[in-house]
Every structure is written in C-alpha cells, then in structure tokens.
Amino acid sequence: MSEAPRSRRSTPWPPVDTESPAPHPDAPRPGTKLAVHYDQCFGCGDVEGGLHMRSTMGEHALVHSQFAVTEAHQGAPGLAHGGLLACAFDEALGSAVGNLLRRPAVTGKLETDFLRPVPVGSTLFITAKVDGVAGRKLYASAEGRLGAEDGSVAVRARALFVEVGFEHFTTHGDPDALTKFRQTPDQINP
Ligand SMILES: CCCCCCCCCC(=O)SCCNC(=O)CCNC(=O)[C@H](O)C(C)(C)COP(=O)(O)OP(=O)(O)OC[C@H]1O[C@@H](n2cnc3c(N)ncnc32)[C@H](O)[C@@H]1OP(=O)(O)O
C-alpha cells in the first residue's frame, strides 16, 4: 500500500490560535520510561484485558508509546477493533499532555483516522506530541505506525484536552482519587 494521503484532513489544526507548548521544567528527560499513571487505568494499568501500553519520553518533546494488539482486542477476525485503537490513542495523547505539560486534563474531543487495518499480533508504534495551548485547551496529535517506528502509518489521531482541577476526579469519580493517583509511581501531577 502507498503512503496514506494527508488529504483526509481538511480542517486546520489546532483549530484556534494557540501558544507553543512549553514543556514543564519537571517533564521527564528524553529516554525516560514513563510509569503507569494509575494502576487501574485500562490503557496503561495492570488490568486484565487492558491495553498494557508502555510509553517513553523521546527527543523533541515527542512521547513514544507501543500497543501490542492481541486476540482480546479484535473487532473483525484477526483485526483490531477501531474503538480500542481510539482508546490506545487517547492514552498516548493523554500521556503526552500529562507528562510534557504536567497539567491535569481530560479528553474533551478525540478524532481518529483509520488508514490501514491493524492485525492481531502486530505492534502499533505511536508517536504523540502537544501542538498548542490556548488557556485550558490543550491540543495534541499522534500517529501510529505498523510494526516499527518507521512502519506504515495506520492510524492518526488528534485531540482536545481540557485542563481541570483535581476536584474533577474527586467530585465526579472516586473521593479518594488523589490518594489513588499518589499510590501509583508516576501520577498526572503530584
Ligand atoms: C500522565 C497522564 C496520562 C493520562 C492518560 C489518560 C488518557 C485517558 C484520558 C481520558 O480518557 S479522560 C476521560 C474522558 N473524558 C471525560 O470524561 C471528560 C468529560 N467532559 C467534561 O468533564 C467536561 O465537558 C470538560 C471538563 C471537558 C469541559 O467542561 P468545563 O465545564 O470544565 O469547560 P467548558 O465546557 O467551558 O470548556 C472549556 C473550553 O473547552 C472547549 N471544549 C470543551 N469540550 C469541547 C469539545 N468537545 N469540542 C470543542 N471544544 C470543547 C469549550 O468550548 C471551552 O472553550 P472556550 O474556553 O474557548 O469557551
């Protein structure tokens, strides 16, 4: 298959004027393996049937994640489910926002382009970056390549994350959320 056309994307990105994303002074150094942000997270935690994603801080403020597609992730026989691929990108994009900016945020909008089928047994190499910041609005994008860092692009995604206070998690989720984040080795924002 030839390289997927960028023409599938017609709208500008980020969609509003933004400032360049300045990495937080405490952002992990390039080469750092990023720890699980919450041990019960479906994307990166030690959850049965979860995605078990692992991420590393790269050069040039890029975050590299890997998603190994197993039989538990199928939609059609032998192929990854698109919703789970979207989940993998939500995780990878969130990891880029959380680790680079160290600002607690949740996904407001997530857009995916599925360019090639992703087979069971393959590994998707996802590279994510923060594209811009406009107040509480944090824009990020990613692409996933099949089998290797320089493999064919199979999926692209972009997302708006919205910065929230920690009361977002304690009010809407678990009142002990802050403690639970702190029990994990590397949380969203200590
Ligand atoms: C190391 C860390 C690794 C972390 C990895 C985690 C990966 C997983 C991340 C997730 O999956 S988070 C879970 C899924 N997301 C949610 O549950 C969020 C649910 N939605 C909300 O809680 C609220 O809608 C939200 C906090 C996103 C926004 O509500 P707010 O009342 O705080 O803000 P508001 O609605 O005023 O929006 C703020 C700005 O964002 C804009 N906005 C919000 N949602 C939007 C949207 N969907 N599309 C476009 N713009 C949007 C909104 O227009 C506005 O723009 P302006 O400031 O210019 O007026």
Automatic annotation (TrEMBL):
Membrane disposition: Peripheral membrane protein
Location relative to the cell: Cell projection, Ruffle membrane; Cytoplasm; Membrane
Keyword annotations from UniProtKB, A to Z: Apoptosis, Cell membrane, Cell projection, Cytoplasm, Fatty acid metabolism, Hydrolase, Lipid metabolism, Membrane, Transit peptide
Residue ranges of the region described as Disordered: 1-32
Gene3D superfamilies on file: Hotdog Thioesterase
Span of domain Thioesterase: 78-144
Entries under SUPFAM superfamilies matching the protein: Thioesterase/thiol ester dehydrase-isomerase
Record has Transit peptide as a keyword: yes
Annotated GO CC locations: cytoplasm; membrane
One Gene Ontology biological process: fatty acid metabolic process
Superkingdom: Bacteria
InterPro entries according to UniProt: HotDog_dom_sf, THEM4/THEM5_acyl-CoA_thioest, Thioestr_dom
EC numbers on record: 3.1.2.2
Gene Ontology terms for molecular function: hydrolase activity
Catalyzed reactions per annotation: dodecanoyl-CoA + H2O = dodecanoate + CoA + H(+); (9Z)-octadecenoyl-CoA + H2O = (9Z)-octadecenoate + CoA + H(+); (5Z,8Z,11Z,14Z)-eicosatetraenoyl-CoA + H2O = (5Z,8Z,11Z,14Z)-eicosatetraenoate + CoA + H(+); octanoyl-CoA + H2O = octanoate + CoA + H(+)
Similarity annotation: Belongs to the THEM4/THEM5 thioesterase family.
Protein name: Acyl-coenzyme A thioesterase THEM4
